[in-house]
Protein backbone atom coordinates (compact mmCIF):
# COMPACT_ATOMS: atom_id res chain seq x y z
CA UNK A 1 0.00 0.00 0.00
CA UNK A 2 1.18 3.48 -0.75
CA UNK A 3 -0.28 6.57 0.82
CA UNK A 4 -0.36 9.61 -1.44
CA UNK A 5 -0.84 12.98 0.25
CA UNK A 6 0.37 15.14 -2.62
CA UNK A 7 -1.60 16.54 -5.57
CA UNK A 8 1.54 16.05 -7.68
CA UNK A 9 0.67 13.70 -10.57
CA UNK A 10 4.20 12.28 -10.54
CA UNK A 11 3.72 11.07 -6.97
CA UNK A 12 0.41 9.42 -7.86
CA UNK A 13 1.94 7.88 -11.02
CA UNK A 14 4.81 6.42 -8.97
CA UNK A 15 2.33 4.93 -6.47
CA UNK A 16 0.27 3.40 -9.29
CA UNK A 17 3.40 1.98 -10.90
CA UNK A 18 4.41 0.39 -7.60
CA UNK A 19 0.93 -1.10 -7.07
CA UNK A 20 0.80 -2.48 -10.60
CA UNK A 21 4.07 -4.35 -9.99
CA UNK A 22 2.10 -6.53 -7.53
CA UNK A 23 -1.21 -6.97 -9.39
CA UNK A 24 -2.89 -5.60 -12.50
CA UNK A 25 -5.92 -4.63 -10.36
CA UNK A 26 -5.26 -1.46 -8.42
CA UNK A 27 -7.55 0.08 -5.82
CA UNK A 28 -7.52 3.82 -5.15
CA UNK A 29 -9.36 5.08 -2.10
CA UNK A 30 -10.22 8.63 -1.17
CA UNK A 31 -8.43 9.82 1.93
CA UNK A 32 -10.54 11.05 4.82
CA UNK A 33 -8.97 13.57 7.15
CA UNK A 34 -10.10 12.11 10.44
CA UNK A 35 -9.24 9.85 13.32
CA UNK A 36 -9.87 6.11 13.01
CA UNK A 37 -12.08 5.07 15.92
CA UNK A 38 -12.95 1.40 16.40
CA UNK A 39 -15.91 -0.12 18.20
CA UNK A 40 -16.41 -3.75 19.22
CA UNK A 41 -19.87 -5.15 18.50
CA UNK A 42 -21.34 -8.36 19.90
CA UNK A 43 -24.55 -10.27 19.19
CA UNK A 44 -23.81 -13.85 20.23
CA UNK A 45 -27.11 -15.20 18.86
CA UNK A 46 -28.91 -14.19 15.66
CA UNK A 47 -31.86 -12.93 17.76
CA UNK A 48 -29.71 -10.74 20.04
CA UNK A 49 -29.64 -6.98 19.66
CA UNK A 50 -26.07 -5.84 19.10
CA UNK A 51 -24.15 -4.66 22.13
CA UNK A 52 -21.40 -2.11 21.55
CA UNK A 53 -18.26 -1.37 23.54
CA UNK A 54 -16.67 1.94 24.28
CA UNK A 55 -14.94 3.09 21.09
CA UNK A 56 -11.16 2.90 21.07
CA UNK A 57 -8.32 4.37 19.09
CA UNK A 58 -4.88 3.16 18.13
CA UNK A 59 -2.58 6.06 18.92
CA UNK A 60 0.58 6.36 16.85
CA UNK A 61 3.17 7.37 19.42
CA UNK A 62 5.79 8.72 17.06
CA UNK A 63 3.44 11.36 15.65
CA UNK A 64 4.10 13.35 18.82
CA UNK A 65 7.75 13.49 17.72
CA UNK A 66 6.72 15.03 14.39
CA UNK A 67 7.05 11.75 12.49
CA UNK A 68 4.59 11.29 9.61
CA UNK A 69 3.88 7.81 10.89
CA UNK A 70 1.35 5.63 9.10
CA UNK A 71 -0.19 2.55 10.75
CA UNK A 72 1.55 0.02 8.54
CA UNK A 73 2.65 -3.59 8.99
CA UNK A 74 5.69 -2.65 11.09
CA UNK A 75 3.69 -0.32 13.35
CA UNK A 76 1.10 -3.02 13.92
CA UNK A 77 3.18 -6.16 14.27
CA UNK A 78 6.90 -5.55 14.73
CA UNK A 79 7.51 -2.18 16.41
CA UNK A 80 6.13 -2.34 19.96
CA UNK A 81 7.05 1.32 20.54
CA UNK A 82 5.06 2.59 17.56
CA UNK A 83 1.55 2.66 19.02
CA UNK A 84 -0.78 1.97 21.92
CA UNK A 85 -4.54 1.51 22.39
CA UNK A 86 -6.78 4.04 24.19
CA UNK A 87 -10.26 2.94 25.23
CA UNK A 88 -12.35 4.96 25.41
CA UNK A 89 -10.91 7.20 22.72
CA UNK A 90 -10.27 10.76 23.85
CA UNK A 91 -13.36 12.33 22.28
CA UNK A 92 -16.41 14.12 23.70
CA UNK A 93 -19.06 11.79 25.13
CA UNK A 94 -21.59 12.74 22.43
CA UNK A 95 -19.12 11.74 19.69
CA UNK A 96 -18.37 8.43 21.43
CA UNK A 97 -22.12 7.78 21.64
CA UNK A 98 -22.52 8.60 17.93
CA UNK A 99 -19.71 6.15 17.05
CA UNK A 100 -21.46 3.45 19.12
CA UNK A 101 -24.76 4.14 17.37
CA UNK A 102 -23.18 4.06 13.90
CA UNK A 103 -21.36 0.81 14.77
CA UNK A 104 -24.58 -0.88 15.93
CA UNK A 105 -26.47 0.29 12.83
CA UNK A 106 -23.69 -0.87 10.48
CA UNK A 107 -23.59 -4.30 12.16
CA UNK A 108 -27.38 -4.58 11.88
CA UNK A 109 -27.35 -3.43 8.24
CA UNK A 110 -25.17 -6.39 7.24
CA UNK A 111 -27.15 -8.86 9.40
CA UNK A 112 -24.15 -9.27 11.68
CA UNK A 113 -24.04 -12.10 14.20
CA UNK A 114 -21.33 -13.04 16.64
CA UNK A 115 -18.52 -10.55 16.86
CA UNK A 116 -17.30 -7.75 14.65
CA UNK A 117 -15.25 -4.62 14.99
CA UNK A 118 -16.65 -1.60 13.20
CA UNK A 119 -13.95 0.87 12.22
CA UNK A 120 -15.02 4.44 11.60
CA UNK A 121 -13.46 7.77 10.77
CA UNK A 122 -14.35 10.76 12.93
CA UNK A 123 -13.67 14.12 11.29
CA UNK A 124 -12.78 17.34 13.10
CA UNK A 125 -16.41 18.50 12.82
CA UNK A 126 -17.65 15.27 14.48
CA UNK A 127 -18.91 13.46 11.37
CA UNK A 128 -18.75 9.66 11.75
CA UNK A 129 -18.18 7.56 8.61
CA UNK A 130 -17.91 3.76 8.50
CA UNK A 131 -14.54 2.66 7.15
CA UNK A 132 -15.01 -1.11 7.39
CA UNK A 133 -16.62 -3.93 9.32
CA UNK A 134 -14.05 -6.47 10.44
CA UNK A 135 -15.92 -9.75 10.91
CA UNK A 136 -12.94 -11.57 12.42
CA UNK A 137 -11.06 -9.02 14.50
CA UNK A 138 -7.95 -9.84 16.48
CA UNK A 139 -8.88 -11.64 19.68
CA UNK A 140 -5.72 -11.93 21.74
CA UNK A 141 -5.82 -10.23 25.15
CA UNK A 142 -3.84 -7.31 23.68
CA UNK A 143 -6.08 -6.86 20.63
CA UNK A 144 -8.45 -3.90 20.34
CA UNK A 145 -11.61 -6.04 20.43
CA UNK A 146 -11.16 -7.56 23.92
CA UNK A 147 -9.56 -4.36 25.24
CA UNK A 148 -12.64 -2.38 24.18
CA UNK A 149 -14.91 -4.83 26.00
CA UNK A 150 -12.66 -4.80 29.08
CA UNK A 151 -12.98 -1.00 29.24
CA UNK A 152 -16.76 -1.41 28.90
CA UNK A 153 -16.87 -3.81 31.86
CA UNK A 154 -16.83 -7.19 30.10
CA UNK A 155 -13.81 -9.34 30.98
CA UNK A 156 -11.96 -11.50 28.48
CA UNK A 157 -13.34 -14.64 30.18
CA UNK A 158 -16.92 -13.28 30.08
CA UNK A 159 -16.53 -12.38 26.43
CA UNK A 160 -15.35 -15.87 25.51
CA UNK A 161 -18.14 -17.42 27.61
CA UNK A 162 -20.77 -15.26 25.88
CA UNK A 163 -19.54 -16.32 22.44
CA UNK A 164 -19.43 -20.00 23.40
CA UNK A 165 -22.94 -19.83 24.88
CA UNK A 166 -24.22 -18.12 21.73
CA UNK A 167 -22.65 -20.70 19.43
CA UNK A 168 -24.38 -23.52 21.25
CA UNK A 169 -27.88 -22.20 20.61
From TrEMBL:
**Gene Ontology molecular functions:** ATP binding; D-alanine-D-alanine ligase activity; metal ion binding
Q: Per the entry, which co-factors are needed? A: Mn(2+); Mg(2+)
InterPro entries named among the record's database cross-references? ATP-grasp, ATP_grasp_subdomain_1, D-Ala_lig_Van_CS, Dala_Dala_lig_C
Q: Which residues form the ATP-grasp domain?
A: 25-165
Which superkingdom heads the taxonomic lineage of this protein's source? Bacteria
What does the entry give for GO biological process? cell wall organization; peptidoglycan biosynthetic process; regulation of cell shape
Answer yes or no on keyword Transferase. Answer: no
* Recorded GO CC terms: cytosol
Protein keywords: ATP-binding, Cell shape, Cell wall biogenesis/degradation, Ligase, Magnesium, Manganese, Metal-binding, Nucleotide-binding, Peptidoglycan synthesis
Q: According to the UniProt entry, what is the EC number of this protein? A: 6.3.2.4
Under Pfam families, the record lists: Dala_Dala_lig_C
Could you tell me which Gene3D superfamilies the record lists for this protein? ATP-grasp fold, A domain, ATP-grasp fold, B domain
Q: Which SUPFAM superfamilies match?
A: Glutathione synthetase ATP-binding domain-like (SSF56059)
State the family it belongs to.
Belongs to the D-alanine--D-alanine ligase family.
User: What is this protein called in UniProt?
Assistant: D-alanine-D-alanine ligase
